[in-house]
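Morning run. Coffee first, then this:
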Amino acid sequence: MAEMSKRTKYWLIAGGTFVAMLLGGFVAMNLWLSSGDAPEEFQASEDLGGTPSGEDEEGPATVDIAGPASGVWMIQIDSASDDGVGYRVIEDLPIGAPEEVVARTDVVSGSATVEGTTISEMSVEVDMASLASDNDFRDGNVADRYLQVGEFGTATFVTTEEIELPLPVQEGELVDFEVDGEMTLHGVTRKVTAAGRAQWTPTVIEVVGSVDVTFDSFGISRPEIFGRSARNEAIVEFKIRFVPEGDVPEGEIPSGEEPATE
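And here it is:
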């Protein structure tokens, strides 16, 4: 009996140590995956608007500007302006308060067609494999298991209605917009509404906004890792600049994509 008692004690200690190691590893992985402070939402660029030159004691001067010139405008990502597209989601944790997770990419392409005072069509394409948060392990797990970027490498948004530009506007004025479109994600296309603010100069159109989506509506399981589970609701955020097609320097990739190799 004494020998059995020693064996029992040994296995209890060994088992307890093993469980403690598992719990410690579980807690350590959750701490490692913790995002800390998530990036703020995209903000409109001050270099395109704000206070025009010519301020005086009576307040800032304002100048009426025309709409963008008619023609095709191409997406040109400006990394200095923190341009890009990404998602924002809440993760519920097994221990502690929920955390906000943000992943973004600047590998974005697309175009907009301006006809007089109307943007007749706009399309945006995003490289899903390049989405990055503050943790590579999370990004790989989400990309491979949930977004399945090997099969569904891109996501797209295409407007399904014209956008009327409220002219005239004043230089530096941000214009609110809401536009319906179709988003294709994970091989599934759904009708969505994008909302945000836009501003422009004779050479640049900038749009900043978001689209509310749910994972299940696109056939995506809610991402989960080490007990951390993303909620079903997510926000697709964007900050994109368009420039006239002819203003893209020859040989430059306007979308932030890598040039094709033969």
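The two ends are 76 Å apart (CA to CA). Good start to the day.
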